[in-house]
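Summary for the steering committee. One of the milestones for this cycle was to obtain a three-dimensional model of the protein with tetrahydrodeoxyuridine bound, which we needed before selecting residues for the alanine scan. The sequence and ligand used are listed below.
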Amino acid sequence: MTDYEELIRQALKARENAYAPYSNFYVGAALLAGEGKDGRPLIYTGCNIENAAFSPTCCAERTAFFKAVSEGCRAFQAIAIVGGGQGAPASYTMPCGVCRQVMMEFCNPETFEIVAAVSESDYQVYKLKELLPEAFGAL
Ligand code: THU
């Protein structure tokens, strides 16, 4: 995939729903899952959702993955991630280790792309294999 603009746009939009009153770090993610029946990209979005007890917090990436998988979708090509404090993202947000492991469960590490973005035109692309080398996989 070379056109990440739409994916990043949707991640930025999803970030508007981030619930992060404890960290004040707002994250949005947009997960590409092939094409819908209308031929348009099928995209599941997510935001981070924090909790007063802290550990129930769910990252934006996992929100997107769990929405998709819970709706029967298990084939993914790429995920765009945007994050930061109030206002426009100022630096790239990389997925945490737990989210990388969740990606490993459902994605081909050789081909799945992680798009860490600041804007639609400023982003870095990684393969899952680069971000989770020597990964633990399905038994
Ligand atoms: N967070 C994400 O949603 N995704 C990431 O890739 C990194 C961290 C969230 C978790 C928590 O709500 C906040 O950012 C600060 O860690």
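Key point for the committee: Residues 69 and 106 are 9 Å apart (CA to CA).
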